Fold this protein.
Amino acid sequence: MNYEKSHKLFERALSVIPGGVNSPVRACKSVGMEPVFIDHADGCMIFDSDGNSYIDYIGSWGPMILGHRHPSIIEAIESVLKRGTSFGAPTDLEIELAEMIINAVPSIEMVRMVNSGTEATMSAIRLARGITGRDTIVKFDGCYHGHADTLLVEAGSGVATLGIPGSPGVPESFVSHTLSLPYNDIDAFKKVMSEQSEKIACVIVEPVAGNMGLVPPVDGFLEALRELTEKSGSILIFDEVITGFRVAFGGAQSLYGISPDITCLGKIIGGGLPVGAYGGKNEIMSHMAPQGPVYQAGTLSGNPVAMAAGIAALLQLKEPGFYDSLEEKASRLAAGLEKAVKKAGKKAAINQVGSILGFFFTDKEVKNYEDAKTCDLEMFSAYYKGMRQKGIYIAPSQFEALFVSAAHETEQIDATIKAAEEILGEL
Ligand code: HOZ
């Protein structure tokens, strides 16, 4: 494949944007390559500036569950543009999207729109601290909740990809109230709750971890979080920025039957436009200004274009059978990849929840960040490189997930399996 135009664009970008990118993982540094610059995308296909085409399993890191340029989303955006692009004032659209979210997710009775997942988690934590009057937050190793100061401890995603423990610029005192525990370790969690529960404002978790590859919760893990937070008067926050409307219409909480106090959303609810949201029961959300004293604000919050795209997306997801058919496609991919691994005599673990997959180059079952870190990163880099050459666009990191969309058909999934078979055979 020829990457001449992407290379030139990257050189230009490097002189005006730090690292040439606006979000670190996409720089492809950890796999020793340069990024491709995207020209356009359609359905499950993405096309770079050199005219190369790829089957896309990044899907903008999750939002493109319907595939790119879904007609109903494009139509909704075109239609709302006639009204304007931002008013910094309330519109009917934000009420409509809020109502749709509330109808889909029973633990949410009120929801506040923001512009990114980071904003949602950061605000949810402020709210939890405001309500409880406590400072300590508990998170889990390898979970990534955006880049707010207090959450950059043992984080997944780009922090894991670049192998850095945290970030300069985050004062020690800011993270001194953050405890990070091993994901899926019920005993470690019980111990902390028995020793310091009266200090803990909240426990924040990705109910299905999607930023260290894909790691589902073990039986009893989410149940223990719910039970002990309830007992200690701390707030349970589910970060469903990735899983919300992805693993089921009601998110991971509906799949596992656990009701958190606050849910953070993003990605899919904006139909591919920048968005975030956090919500919960009235008694929790009523603490937010201007109804209550906890402050959070944003000029572009509830932006009409993002709201219109989000409404159009959720309307499609409500169609009967949508999630079954999506999961079938992902299962076909998972089974095919598993076969390809065996055929090539390699060791890899594959995790799947709904339409999200984790593909790990390790012989261990991956249940937490320690397991994910046992992966052969050199082998992953070689695999990434080979797959990209064959027109398969996966995340350039062992610590990110694969997303299957409704636009992926058997033909593309089988082509992906064939490419994997060939590449794995060469490794
Ligand atoms: N935090 C995102 C992956 N979990 C990466 C976002 C991006 O690079 O666009």
